[in-house]
Input
Amino acid sequence: MTFTTVYYEPDSLNYPLGKQLREQYKSLPWIPIESHNRIPELTARDNRDFARMKQYLIIGTRKTHRYVENQKISDYLVPFTSSGCSAMCLYCYLVCNYNKCSYLRLFVNREQMLDRLIRTSHKTGSPCVFEIGSNSDLLLENTVTQNLEQVIPAFAKEGRGQLTFPTKFDMVEPLLSLDHRGKTIFRMSVNPNEIIRRVELGTSPLEKRISALNRMAEAGYPAGLLIAPVILLDGWKTLYGELIDQLADTLSGKTRKSLPIEIILMTYSYVHRAINQDAFPNAVELYSAEQMIGGGRGKYRYRQEHREPAEQFFREQLARKLPEAHIAYIC
Ligand code: SF4
Output
């Protein structure tokens, strides 16, 4: 990942990861900030600076650690070692929270977060699944911090239940030989290559993602697949039909065995439209007045008459082409 500037809370340099990052990026300008949540000179920037701001690295400590109950693939959403991301998917959910300031923020107090996670895992009634990647892409983050290389074996040894995180990247090499004891569920998010190229800017190509998922399954990690977000562009049935053909042809026997598949239709928002129109004027338009309806707080979702045929399409295609897998949910 190429960063151009680092903004940092001075206290971060008292932590081992803060010191490591200082050394790693010593050739860049380092600008002290009061708080990673309040950088007035960046908030004041124009939307057209969005891509430039994605090359900034923000370093601080995480102060809020409240776990949120979740009823999908995990039991709790855990605020973890980063939020924001250096990639630029045009629909990224983080833009709803952080607006144009959705650059990568790293939190250097990882020992504190890991310790809390392990302690909490022993306090739940039965073993739980903890989603640690709901605020960023941890595999991408790992290329900067190597955090997963510490967290996965530490949780395997001392934690109870399982961790999970999704990714749109393929840099799994450092994770393959870790002592994970089956306690980390690795979930790969996929889309047709044309959508990856036009919409998921800066992420890994489909073939590499599938290969990474196969390698992780081969290394014994429990695997999951997300087809997400499903975007109903013109010709979507052809695009997603070809995607499922490709998955059926290239997912290994080990990966596809009991593979849970999450299918999530895209939600979009007023904020995305405003930023994308200014920052990526030539990009594909994801908003469709004909297909979408307001879902509250400036969000848009596909109308029921467009969701239903899409759901039916995925159920039928997956049952026919990937019968060993099962749909965990469609939403
Ligand atoms: S990879 Fe994930 S976190 Fe990063 S921009 Fe894309 S959707 Fe957002």
Remarks:
- The first strand starts at residue 5 and ends at 8.
- The first helix runs from residue 16 to 24.
- DSSP finds 13 helices and 18 strands in the chain.
